[in-house]
Predict the structure.
Amino acid sequence: MHPGPILFCGDPHGQWQHIIDAALQTHARAVILLGDLEPARPLHIELEAIWERVWFIHGNHDTDHADTFGNVWHDEVSERSLHGRVVKLPCGTRIAGLGGVFRGAVWYPKDAQAPKFRNREAHARVTPRQDRWQGSVHLKHWSTIYPDEVEQLATLQADILITHEAPGYHEHGFAELDSLARRMGVRMTVHGHQHDNIDSSAHWDAQGFQSFGVGLRGVMVMD
């Protein structure tokens, strides 16, 4: 096990060297990518030098193009995805992940309307065959958050929850992610997507957990 910190890496959008350098320089024990990866090659090749330490979630831009999708949902990459599950790192920290974004075509909690689909399977059944991607929903919706994914995660326990979307402290965030964090008993959430790192410490007591955003291509260090 590497002795260094955990690195949380904000949306890389195809840039990797700063992440590799940070991981090697700090002897990071884990490198956590917060979505919008957009690798030009399969992710395990882009990050080959540190791959055994890498975990990730997908972002909305990871389903913009078929090639990008293939480089993220790759057979040799998928085992490192944290989406919809909890992984216990060698140091004992339990990290959970929820990739993607809320979209009105499926579920946009701020609209206060019932979800149009509970899960990808229900959505796929009404998606025209010519619009399906790999026999399921439209390519874009592979990065859409479905209610059943959130409910399934809520049955698990973790120390840290990483999301692409921001939780409720952020003006563009979602209170549903606050509820998820509390149900999972996490002490910390970390998100990307918004390309900022606003100080949310004034909200921590009320939230019941610490929350952090990591900016565009930023790296947050947690010892």
About this structure: The longest strand covers residues 94-98. The CA atoms of residues 33 and 175 lie 22 Å apart.
